[in-house]
Design goal:
With 71 residues, the chain is mostly helical. Helix content is 76%, strand content 0%.
C-alpha cells in the first residue's frame, strides 16, 4: 500500500497524518525506501530534460481531436 503514496508524497499531496505514517513506514521498510529513492531519481531526471517547442499546428490538432471525443 505504501507504493500508492510514493508519488503523492513526492508531489507534496499527503496530508499531515498520512505523511507522518508514510515517513514512519519508509524509515523502517528497506524495499519501500528503495522504491521512493528510485522515484525521486526519476523525477529529478525528467525535470532536467530539455523540452522541445511544440508547433502551433500540432497543438491545435491535438485540441481539436480532444474536443471531438467529448473531453
Amino acid at each position: 500500500k505504501c507504493r500508492e503514496y510514493i508519488s503523492r508524497a513526492i508531489d507534496g499531496e499527503l496530508k499531515s497524518k498520512d505523511l507522518t505514517l508514510f515517513n514512519a513506514h519508509i524509515s523502517s521498510c528497506k524495499e519501500c525506501r528503495k522504491a521512493l529513492e528510485i522515484e525521486i531519481s526519476a523525477v529529478r531526471k525528467l525535470k532536467k530534460i530539455n523540452r522541445l517547442p511544440i508547433h502551433l499546428g500540432f497543438q491545435k490538432s491535438v485540441l481539436v481531436g480532444y474536443s471531438i471525443f467529448g473531453n
